[in-house]
Amino acid sequence: MAKPLLEVKNLKKFFTFQRGLVKRKTFYLRAVDDVTFDLEREKTLGVVGESGCGKTTLGKTIVGLYPPDSGSITLNPNGNPINTLNPNDEELKIIRKTVQMVFQDPQSSLNPRWPVRNIVGEPLEILKLVSGRKEKESKVIELLETVGLKPEHINRYPHEFSGGQRQRIGIARALASQPDLMVLDEPTSAVDVSVQAQVLNLLKDLQKEKKMAYLFISHDLGVVHHMADEIAVQYLGQIVEYGDSEKVFNNPMHPYTKALLSALPVADPEFEAHKKRIILTGTLPNAISPPPGCRFHTRCKELVDEKKCKSECPALKEVEKNHKVACWIYDR
Amino acid sequence: MSDKEILMEVKDLVTRFYTEDGVVKALEGVTFSLYKGETLALVGETGCGKSVTALSILRLLGMSGKTLKGEVLFYDEESKKRLGMTGKGPIEILKLESKQMLKIRGFGMSMITQDPMTSLNPVYTVGEQLLEVIELHKGMSGDEAKKEALRLIEDVELTPPEEIFKKYPHQLSGGQRQRIVISISLAAEPALIFADEPTTALDVTIQARVLELMQELKEKFQTSLILITHNLGIVAETSDRICVMYAGRVVEVADKFTLFKRPLHPYSQGLIAAVPVVTEKRDRLSYIGGTVPNLIHPPSGCRFHPRCPYATDICKEKMPELKPVETEDHLVECWHMDEVLKDLEEKGGVC
Ligand SMILES: Nc1ncnc2c1ncn2[C@@H]1O[C@H](COP(=O)(O)OP(=O)(O)OP(=O)(O)O)[C@@H](O)[C@H]1O
Ligand SMILES: Nc1ncnc2c1ncn2[C@@H]1O[C@H](COP(=O)(O)OP(=O)(O)OP(=O)(O)O)[C@@H](O)[C@H]1O
Ligand code: SF4
Ligand SMILES: [Mg+2]
Ligand SMILES: [Mg+2]
Question: What does A50-68 look like in DSSP terms, one character per residue?
Answer without folding.
Answer: STTSSHHHHHHHHTTSS--
